[in-house]
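Worked example 2:
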Amino acid sequence: MYHLRSIGLVVCLVSSSAQAADKVPLPKPADGWKIERAAQAPDILFPTAIVAATDGTLYIGQDPMDMPGPPTQPIDSIVSFKDGKVKLFADKLWSVMGLEWVQNTLYVVHAPYLSALRDTDGDGKADSRVDLMTGLGPKLPGFNGINDHVPSGIRLGVDGYLYIAVGDKGIPKGVGKDGATIQLFGGGVIRIRPDGTGLEVVSTGERNPLSVALSANDDIFTYGNDDDSKKWPNSLTHHIVGGHYGYPYEFLLTPNRALPIVAGQIGGSGAQGLCYNEDGLPASYRGNLFFCDWGLSTVFRYNVEQAGGTFRLKEKTPFVTKGDLTDFRPFSLAVSADGAGLWLVDWAFNSWLADGPQTGRLYHLTYEGPDRPDKSPRPQGDDPTTRLAALDHPALSVRLESQRSLARLGSSQVAPLTTRLKQSEPGLGRLHALWALDAIDTPEARDAIAAVLTDDQAELRLQAARHAGIRRDRNLLTGLSSLLRDRDPAVRREAAIALGKLGDPSAGPALMAALGDSDNVAAWAIRHAIRTLMTWNEEALVQALLDDRRRDDALKLTDEAWALPVVQALVKALTATESSTIRSRIVVTLGGLYRQYTPWTGQWFGTNPLAGQLPQKTVDWDRKAMANVLRGLALGLEDRDPAVRAQAIVAFRTIGSETAPYLRSRLMTETDEPNLKGLIEALGVLGDVHASTNLALIAQDPKRPEPVRASALDALGRLGGAQVLRARLSFVYDPKAPASLIARALPELGREGVLPANDVAAFLENPTAEIRQAALLSFNPKRKLPAEVKQSVIDRLTDKAPEVRITAITVLARLNIREAIPRLLTVANEDAYRDYATMALAAMPDAQALPLYLSAIQNRNPELRRAGESALLVIRDQVAGDLTKQLQSGKLSGPAALALERVLARFQPIVDWRVIGPFPRTTAQVFVSETAIDFARSHTGAEGRTIAWTPRKTDALTGRVTLDDLKEGAGDRGGFGYDTNGSPNLCAFAYAEVASDRDRPALLLVGSSGPITLTVNERVVHHESSQAGRPYAPDSDLVRVDLKKGQNRFLVVTRQGIGVWSFSVRVSEPSSISLAARPEENSPEKLQAFALSHDGDSKKGESLFFDTKGIGCVKCHAAGGQGTANAGPDLTGLALKYDKAEIIRSVLEPSNRLATGYQPVLLSMQDGKVLTGLVRSESETEIELVDAEAQVSRIPKNQIEERRVSDVSLMPKGLADTLSPVEFADLISFLQSLKSAPASPAAP
């Protein structure tokens, strides 16, 4: 009957809707389930967290802060929902993201507060608010324009704690009711007692978990979402106390410093969920996890099982999908009060920050399968006998209620609870008896719990250990130490955690003895306990480092453990162990201990931390310890094994210039060639001028291996001073010097301007082609060349060596020697040199080369196509008639036709704009769909300031609008919304109107320094999402639009990006030339569809890949053992990691997944320029940058204003534009054939 009444309630609710139930579009539930809509906007608005009280009342968080806003004012609320009626329960709250109901109290997570709300007078509205925690997140969590990545879901555990999931904005300083403080860098889980005491961090290293789900045994699970780098996944994580899961850095760079997640996937956006522990559903649902995925429009069901000290995923299935809805965005779940169904909150909007739409839905899910169980009777009242029996009730909610009821009765219940605890079956009641005794917390209660530390049931031993840690009961140290040898890894894990929490250093020996646990999670807990206790016994550490069983764990333990005894133990072990492999690892560990990380300032690292500056070790600590680190590294530098010495060299180089004397002392005695090269390179990078004499001797020593001499030359090139210069000059003029080394030294000397042009020209006559080629590269483009020198360069076009001829062609363009144009036109007639000559002629545009430029825009090489188009733009007025005939002939198609259209079009910049800003970087698209903007209305911008529309004039030639003045601000609220590591921090809107005398197609040229969205007449026509920014150029993007007769409304949404905050829009003038439609056959969508459905010819694909005159993949990538290029990752083994769909995507969207180590950097310079490329090397004073054309530049660090990792690949855009669908399928087939694992480097 009870179940039927529940269905009746839902039917009643649905019937009150404006639509009949059979016409309501609904999500699709799993088989056996029924879903009905219970409420929707405007009855509930912007719903977030949800919880069901024991009387069936639902409490629903409402979050207008993150829809119409503003996101920095407490305008959120909570409504109650019962019998189809919605009533305001509480308002004036910050962003409501977590709700939990315990004993007539509603606990609310609304960062930066955790509050307890109560309705004391029974009128259905909260009249009591107690803030249990302040500083729950940043001071102003919505500083970036949205309350995301903040503390969210909350659940009460069996142990009496409230567990809270925390997003990766972290907690700079959280304060509990009892004054306890915590700091949490990044995301994780914290816990606090319901009275606001006992605040502590549980775990760290998560990204953005929106809720915490607790099993019936208090196993902690979260489900987060992936980051913008697409390297951290939507993560299902099992958390342990003291666990660290690696976000934002270690999971990728040093995974040994993190625990693994249970499961994850790239894509989607994890939201809130729960663990089902009630009795209203079949037993197969018990212990299952249910999590909403907002991004994938799906609620997923997870079945996990114990795996040692953690869990593994057994099965993942869709539980609710979007069905007939297009805007289904599941956000949170709650178990209905009777345990027989679920409530589901639907955000019902495909984004955040909606300024206008009123959204939100509430659904009820009911199980109707044939195996639906009968419900167990629920106890009423607080009779202790009844409640004691109810500790074994199948529903967790009943067990918890009974546990709390017995605990409230106090010491009178110790005896019956002790008796129940001793009874071996059923196990459920024993667990709750234990925690009821824990809550009573008398000596007798503690003794009863201590007795089950040796119980036959592993779960009881585990829970008793957990109790001991929470209560910090030092009397149980011996028993806990014994459990470190328990047969169950989870028990060993909890015993170690408890010992760490006791705060008793005498636990150290037992923990040290337990190092080397076979279970990864238990081993982690043991190491964490030792670190927590700071029980650093030098001799015990040495013994562990020398013990075969414990050595690996001991090395992990000492990694980044900044303590003097740790350093001293490592140095002792270094001299005591016979294993060169262990000595190498010790040296690496010592190197990492020289300095500490800069303390966290409380600033957020943004949504893509890998795109920013990684944490640096810059802080000195104990001077004696630092000196011991150097002593240990010095021992490593003199080690008998070259592999150990190699690690010492790397460590010294990483530490910095103060270690140069150590490296210098080894320079003339090192016998291993790779190590000698490493020493030389390190001294060059560290700028050690005191090493210049010996470096010169090495460079000039004919007995030294040539690679070593080459390294010495390179190092000398990094050092200043007259002595160094003399050594380098004498070397290049030494007739006995090897040709390869002269060729290596010449270009650098030439670019520095220390070699007169005539002297360089003399080397053009050298009999060795390598030196002639190097001489060509040694002319300084900034210096004017005498006529005779120019002629000498031109004459190399007929050099007998093909490589010299190619270099000469390239250098003529770089030096802008236009006298060479006639000769270059002749050279272009030779097939072997045509492309090189075309590139050179494109750099010096001349109408005589028109046929070459027209051929270039039809070439498969995207670089050549761009060069041809650029040249045509310069000579357009001279050859306009010829170009028009070419376009109208119909002979050109695809990218060539598009390029010619762009060349012939004449563009006018939009110069009159209205601008408003700055807004926080994440802000509502408040003007995007408005046909008439009220320019007199003011708005709330970043830092809560009042901002208004202002007129803005632009550069008359390019239309460049600069907005750097909008960056200025107080910066006192969350750093002006600034993400220091890679996310553009501010947003602005710009509006202009463009008149047209007719309906016509038009081209737009768009440039920006960062992400930009452009709408024309309220339709989005362009979106560029380079989150880290990009070098501003006025013609970065070509956009096709249709203008209407009359005024056309242009709206720009621009984010700051990098460098001078800029954007520009230029519009093509009316023309008699009709704009050709883009050919559909070669569109990315068509190529993708064809390749997915067709198998190509891998041999033909291989030819395409290695064709240097075509798409030229081999110019940047090696594959299958062929090719030597390293500008991009070696693709050998690609198909072992990615399926066909992902390979296709990586070719068509190269920036979507950048390989680690191949992410370009963006450097904003003091002169306003923005440079981009790959970092080849870096010292304390400069960066060597390799650009897309493989040119190397040395950039002084003191000229860099800002540095970011780019999210835009150096791989050229439009690489596949000239491929037919069949050819594209062939290329994909070849990439799919790369299934052999790449060769591993030799072990040291």
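DSSP finds 38 helices and 48 strands in the chain. Residues 1-21, 969-984, 1239-1244 have pLDDT under 50 and may be disordered.
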